[in-house]
Amino acid sequence: MGIRASIPDIVIGRLPIYLRALGRMIQEEKEYTSSHELGERLGISSAQIRKDLSHFGEFGKQGTGYNVQYLYEQIRHILKVDREWLMAVVGVGDLGHAIAHYRGFQARGFRVAVLFDADPKLVGERIGDLTILPMEQLAAEIQRLGIRIAMIAVPAAEAQAVADRLIEAGVTALLNYAPITLAVPPGVRVQYIDPAAHLQHMTYYLTP
Amino acid sequence: MGIRASIPDIVIGRLPIYLRALGRMIQEEKEYTSSHELGERLGISSAQIRKDLSHFGEFGKQGTGYNVQYLYEQIRHILKVDREWLMAVVGVGDLGHAIAHYRGFQARGFRVAVLFDADPKLVGERIGDLTILPMEQLAAEIQRLGIRIAMIAVPAAEAQAVADRLIEAGVTALLNYAPITLAVPPGVRVQYIDPAAHLQHMTYYLTP
DNA sequence: TAGATTGTTAATCGATTAACAATC
DNA sequence: TAGATTGTTAATCGATTAACAATC
Questions:
Q1: Is residue B208 situated within a structural domain?
Q2: For residue A128, what are the CA distances in angstroms to A101, A103, A112?
Q3: Three-state secondary-structure class, residue B93
């Protein structure tokens, strides 16, 4: 029995983009697509799309391309979003509120299940059908709900301490909105959302 | 006179991360750092940091490393964020509100200067010292303020049309929060913020 | 000085692309 | 069938890393 080489992380990172485009095609009631068409929409070469998908199996048919619905389901399965993941949000300021209200998670495999904030003035406030809980309940609630994913929306100065507590409680995937690189132990994944960093990336190319 | 090869975009994308770390070091009143220390904090090899910086000049000293403040200023200059860029925000729902309130832009070279929304119920509402304007005023206001950067925080279904209008008005850098890949003409830059895509990237690695 | 660290070169590694046989 | 498109191989391209002379 051979060893299956691990799939490049950069390929995994493109799958959600493919999934997003396929979701739109489903809305458009498009039944079939091709690597060429998908690449066209995404600004990616058709060869790359075929190569990426080939890591996971054979999903298309020569001559006709890919059945949109089928490929969509397959990628959902590969990414393990053919189920619902519960998430915790820590920090319920403006950004945390926006995250808690966001309607877009449900369709893509996620649900905000619990909110925490360190500010006693916010604790007890209701958002949708959730009540903001104090930090003291963080570990217990995360364990009770079996939560593995958390979003950090606290100020930069508190983000590392919050990450530490979340990891301690059993979280292994963090989406960090604070503008700071987190130190985490092996086995814990972190993704970053830093709008100012994206903006700075673009200003390099702007002529003043 | 030779042709200066263009610097890889992936290198440009790392500069804001270096800048962010240097900003924190300034807060910590750290005077000198090294490629090794910086790399340690960021989970990047020291060789990569030195190589990245070498595209732009020589900023360090053998034996002592980099003066934090000096390197910070140099990178700010390279990224053209040693000034203030005005930005437009289109779509002032929960997310647009959070963006408009966000205090973190100022220190990193940006200011939200104008807000637009298609909803007549929102038009006229004040957020901080800004008033939400109707879409009809988009082109005129963007031109009047000389705005080159816009953030799109409208539903996916409207994002492409909004992008088209912004580009038409002279915007050449878009930060898109809508979960859709935008089609833009050459010369226009787009960066994407899609939390669900980041989450899906991580669930791949989670064991159910 | 001795130790540390830079900037740079060359080697390595990995990702993307081009091309095409297979086949629907 | 003829045309289209896949999955895959090999070639190309580009990015990362290791190593080290230079030097503070």
A1: no
A2: 7, 11, 11
A3: coil
- Same domain flag for A60 and A40: yes
For residue B24, give its domain range.
2-78
Average pLDDT over residues A105-126: 98
- Residue range B64-94, pLDDT digits in tens: 999 999 999 999 999 999 999 999 999 999 9
Q: Say whether both B183 and B134 belong to one domain.
A: yes
- Check A13 against B201: CB less than 8 A apart: yes
Considering only CA atoms, name the residue closest to the C1' of nucleotide C19: A47
Near-strand C residues (CB closer than 7 A): A 8-11, 44-45, 47-48, 50-51, 61-64; B 34-36, 46-47, 50-51, 53-54, 58-66
A203/chain B closest Cα distance in angstroms: 6
CATH number, domain of A63, equals 1.10.10.10
Encoded amino acid at B104, one letter: G
β-strands A130-134, A126-127: how paired? antiparallel
pLDDT higher than threshold 80 for residue B22: yes
The residue among B137, B159, B160 whose CA lies nearest residue B147 is: B137
Name the helix (H) or strand (E) containing B70.
helix B68-78
Name chain A contacts of B204, Cβ cutoff 8 Å: 12, 15, 78-80
Nearest to B202 among A104, A173, A196 (CB): A173
Taking CA atoms, A82 is separated from A18, A75, A155, A163, in Å, by 15, 9, 33, 27
Boundary (domain end) residue, out of B19, B51, B78: B78
For residue B107, what is the nearest residue in chain A, using CA coordinates? Answer: A196
Structure confidence by residue, pLDDT tens digits, B173-198: 999 999 999 999 999 999 999 999 99
Supply the pTM of this predicted model: 0.96
CATH number of the domain residue A187 falls in: 3.40.50.720
Strand bridging mode A65-67 / A60-61 = antiparallel
Judged by CB atoms closer than 8 Å, whether chains meet at B79 and A193 is answered as no
The mean pLDDT value for A71-89 works out to: 98
One domain, residues A156 and A116: yes
State the Cα torsion A34-A9-A20-A67 to the nearest 10°.
30
Asked whether residue A103 is assigned to any structural domain, the reply reads yes
Sign of CA dihedral A186, B27, A155, B181: negative
